[in-house]
Amino acid sequence: MMPDRPLFLERASFHRRRLGDAARVLPIVAMLLVLVPVWWVPSQVSYAGGAVWIFGLWAVLILAVRLLHRALLRAEAATTRASDAPEERQDAL
Amino acid sequence: MQLDILMIEDEPNIAEAVRFILSREGWQVGLHDDGAGGIEAIREARPRLVILDLMLPNRSGAEILADLRAADDAALASTPVLMLTARGQVREAASAADAMLTKPFDNADLRAQVRRMLA
Amino acid sequence: MPFEALLATCLGYVALMFTVAYAADRAAARGHVRWLDHPLVYTLSLSVYCSAWTFYGAVGYASRSGLEFLTIYLGPTLVFTGAWWGLRRLVRVARMHHVTSVADLVSARFGKSNKLAAIVTLIAVIASTPYIALQLQSVRLSFEVFALNAPNGAVPDGLGGTGLWVAAGLAVFTILFGTRNLAADERHHGVVTAIALEAVVKLLAFVALGVFVIWGLAEGPLDMLDRISRASTDPRVGEGWLLKSDRWTALILVSAAAILTLPRMFQVLVVEAADEERLHVAGWAFPAYLFAMSFFVLPIAVMGRELLPDDANPDLYVLTLPAAQGQDVLALLVFLGGFSAATSMVVVCAIAVATMVSNHWLVPVWLALRRIPAGDDADDLRGFVLNARRVAILAVMAAGWVYHEASGGTAALASMGLVAFTGMAQVLPAMVGGLMWRGANRKGAYCGIGTGLVLWMALIFLPSVGIGGDLPVPRGMDPWTAAVMLSLVLNTLAFIGMSIFGFPDPVERLQGLSFVSAVEPIRHSRMMRGDDRAEPLLAMARRVWGADPALRYFQAEARAQGKSGYLPDLTPSFLTRLERRLAGSIGSATAHAMIDRVAGGVALTVADLLQVADEAQRAKEETQRLEAARAELTRTARQLREANDKLTALSVQKDAFLGQISHELRTPMTSVRAFSEILKNPTLTEEERGRFAGIIHAEAARLTRLLDDLLDLSVLESGRAQLSIGVANLHDLITRALSAASATRPERGFLIDRDLPTEHLGVITDADRLLQVLINVITNARKYCDAEHPVLTIRVRPRDGGGAIIDVIDNGSGIDSGRQALIFQKFARLNDPARAGGAGLGLAICREIMVTLGGEISYLPGQGGAAFRIILPARPPGRAPTGIAVAD
User: How far B102 CA sits from the closest chain C CA (Å)?
Assistant: First the structure.
């Protein structure tokens, strides 16, 4: 039992940190995807094509934020469980 | 006119009883009904005897007695004091008083004590 | 559609809003906040971002400039994609400091400086006034659309007064539901719920119109895309629709800033948020709301161009399009949607700006003018703050209406949305910098916000109202963009530059640490005088929150410290919490100043600060655990100390008890014995004989009373008291008690202050026992109240969960805090026993009776006189309410 737990703990917190990184990167990526096309090829994104691009991107962002928050909450719960577990065991002993 | 006895007692009925008993013996009895101002009342009246209740509001009989004994005026400081107490408090006040009477008392005892102390 | 029908619908809708807000406030007051606190309600309330400017104006904007209108929605969306590490931090820190507005946030971060808050308030007021005017105008215009379409074509009389009526109605709504109380957390459930409902109406209306346009007028989405492409080939359109990268960037930046800094957005996003958890839902749901609101904008704009005459106002396409197609119901729904957008924006904006104006302008000025000495009970701060808010709401509304009337035309107002955005964006550098950079300081914030304010006024606000011209810029560059960028860049540079060269004072550094690291702020322990300040602090809290909330809070804090009663120890953490809760009502700067004045304090030094900062930084898990253990130990120690003190006092009292009994019994006996002996004397006159017999009788009665009391007490204490439980009306009991007690010191003319209607409260209890307690407490007041014009106040109210609370308060000098704990002990008379005429068992018996009845009686400190609170449970414990006495 003993060697298993630290491995699990590390994995959970590792996972959570990477998700945290993703949460930081997401708004920057989103910003670039919104701004750069207009800087680069304004005439291509000013009309119907632009509407499709932006609304498509928007829908993806909404979904991404939702999934990310869900995953982060789950990862947080997992790490708290993992770090709580040793204490519970000691109490039981 | 000089008082024979100054009584410091806050219970009006007891004060009346004591005053009645002692007046009938021919003594002049004055009354002060509060612990506060007790020592000033004694200083002003300069009685030959002080009857002091132990349980007084604001300033206890024992404190007034201590004030009296500590007075600069030697004649005043040596005024005889008869302490009235309820039982259970005798020890703490016994030291400085000249005599002690426990409530409730026999009227004859009171007369005898006062007569002895004024003699 | 007849204009009267429109008006009736409109009034019905307004009535619905009042009802919803009222019901939500009622539910919140009863503690039913589960559904009110739902993250979805929170998300919907954020939609106050979509004001009438976006509801009507977005289509006009799209019709003129194509996709550029999307920037207004994309900015907030980008901010919300960073909800996890950005907004959550903001909300957590703001909740931690009980921040009441964006001005308060900046002020709290930069050393609780009220001047800074006052400047931010100034920007908010300048920016909001035209913005509110814009909303009033949109309502008026939408009314006009219907009036012009009316069959008789006549404009009904009084339409010009629409703006005034709307402003007045909204002022009433805002004052009713926005200033009901001065809660420490500044939340308005009624307003938020009504706005959430309006958000649904807005969305439904817009989506319904969009669906009608795409599937009713066009032939589905593909046809729609086709029409958009066709429209863009129109030379009148093509040039205007071409996106300009500089404007695109600046607009996204400004609207991203707006979602954080606009007073109304800060109000719903931060102040009304119970915690940061709701952002997990709002993080995706609010962008989805914006998505839905903007999805149909371009189709409506294109279709409006195709179907409506060239001179039709694009800003009103949303209304005129369905009206022209004969879709009356749809037009009405859209009208209600626009009405919702305008009203919700005005209400929240008015609450937010009024809070700032009252907290940062009116209250500090009033406090400075009054110079009230600490702990003075006479001034009612709570009433003043609430009235200041009401006046501020009226002033904000009135200013909006006056501006609307004065400006008149559409053109002058249409740009006001963006002007307000750019104005409040000037707060952004100080706000974000303050949250992320510990080096940011007050001087920097002053310079940054000041620079921004001046440049915004000169380059954006004044030109927008026709004073001064556009900025001279190189060809090909947009003057508006240049002005925005210039003001924001110089603002940021000034902020950073002055922060680098300035040195913050200790309070500011402490706040900086707390904001940037999101750790609880600590008030240093040297900053207080002594425990005797607890009661003045309670009195102060009472002035701000009202009597009951203040008492509840102090009692809870005292209990957390393991103390009984209402006065907690003045530990640093208690003072910190108290200050932050007060800040939630009156702003951090004022709260800080008031606590300092009452609790007193030594100015914080840099050495103290370093110590505190060190401690705070090391406050990781281990220290926290130690802290918890220590807190537990301290609590136990305090409980032990209190128990020990009580035991010592009790044993002294037990000794004294026998002596007291002896004294109390012997005193009447002395008179009885002396006089009965005197009576034996045959020489007494008849008169003397009668008098002495009377004394003997009275003293014998006194002995009996004393013995009764002692017996009563011993029965109550042993728990063998027999109760006869029944239903009683408190009003009757109090009346009986007052008349029974009036025999005590009848020469004292007491003014009795009762609130008769509230007293009619049925209780299940032993009426005789309760009456005994009431008589005793009232008699005490009659005996001991030393006021020249004695007043006895009696207040009754139902207790949560059944039962009643009875407060009996006189206006005498009260009881010293040191002796308050003793008065319920046996023989604990505080004053002259001759005057009292009793044995000092009264309150002890009262306490035992109340314990037996399952309630309690306690002394209420800080009421401006002696005050007793009698708490009665729904029914006595463990006994059937049938009236059968239980004996063992």
Answer: 9
